Fold this sequence. Notes:
2 copies of one chain form a homodimer.
Chain A: E1 19-20, H1 23-32, E2 35-42, E3 45-56, E4 59-63, H2 68-74, E5 78-92, E6 100-114, H3 118-132, H4 145-150, E7 153-157, E8 160-166, E9 184-192, E10 196-197
Antiparallel strand pairs in A: 1-8, 2-3, 2-5, 3-4, 4-7, 5-6, 5-9, 6-7, 6-8
Amino acid sequence: xxxxxxxxxxxxxxxxxxxxxxxxxxxxxxxxxxxxxxxxxxxxxxxxxxxxxxxxxxxxxxxxxxxxxxxxxxxxxxxxxxxxxxxxxxxxxxxxxxxxxxxxxxxxxxxxxxxxxxxxxxxxxxxxxxxxxxxxxxxxxxxxxxxxxxxxxxxxxxxxxxxxxxxxxxxxxxxxxxxxxxxxxxxxxxxxxxxxxxxxxxxxxxxxxxxxxxxxxxxxxx
Amino acid sequence: xxxxxxxxxxxxxxxxxxxxxxxxxxxxxxxxxxxxxxxxxxxxxxxxxxxxxxxxxxxxxxxxxxxxxxxxxxxxxxxxxxxxxxxxxxxxxxxxxxxxxxxxxxxxxxxxxxxxxxxxxxxxxxxxxxxxxxxxxxxxxxxxxxxxxxxxxxxxxxxxxxxxxxxxxxxxxxxxxxxxxxxxxxxxxxxxxxxxxxxxxxxxxxxxxxxxxxxxxxxxxx
Lengths: 222, 222
């Protein structure tokens, strides 16, 4: 089994039995999510910005535009924390205290590097697009050189990584199991609504098949 | 119209037309979400941790256990950034470059204060619980003093706040509208699956009505 080596900074200290460092498990969480939250600090003030990302092997690419503040102020080698969270279910216990969530989250620490080479940036955009809708890149107009220049992408290697996972039913105090209250898990999943075509769609343009989209956060809380 | 006053730190600089400072709009986003991402920095390294929260007027309470690292290291008045993101839809354009998301996000900057008084902490837990399942607090066993002590809660006032919102169809380059490719919005919404009762449920315990749960991220991307 291939795992990330916990460091002082990624060793899960609270509820360590929920920790996971297995690479395959980390990759699966990263591949199911599509929005990450990137944290960076300026003059001691942290900022947390949502943005899109995709994984390529042991590297994550993420959209840097939203974090342009960071890029302007810090240049190369910015310390960041990139977090992906999938919520699988509400866990309803018999006591308020033991209410919880079933979730899978990944925290990546490291230095983000701006992607400057056109070929690598193009490949990252390819990954972003097809991570949302497989095959989409191949059917739309490709970026021009100017568009490529206008897009900022950052790369972060998967070295210092931890996952945290909760699954299963509520865990109540022994005496509380006698209480006549409903307890269990309410699974959450992201559903895709009916696609809304753009008003200027060309007549005869093919329809979009929502079945092409990846299932996301699908019932792992059960 | 009551608004938050933008500061140098919360003024949205990229795509400023997506910015919103209206209090009612910020409150609505915070009330629809249930997981926030809290950022804090230790020795210049940012950390971003997902946790539960609820709003009480112009204050947010969030679960501090996951951020216990922060509490241990920093004591009172920790600079944090609390971000809530709702994704409403995938925006599919005719060019790769103009692909986007419909989303609503809120960023709160400030100093988090540990809640130490029992009454305030109990009220925060009450809010957390009923924010997920309205009325749940009233039907489960209340926290003991020991459980209350074992729970850490932080408070963050809504002073330095901004929202960012994208809605509507893709915006393509004029010449791209002639391309015969599907374009439009695929709405996302969180669905609740069939509740999974705990295996030790008391016979005759009432069922849970999923209709009690708030609708989340429901179709605002249309």
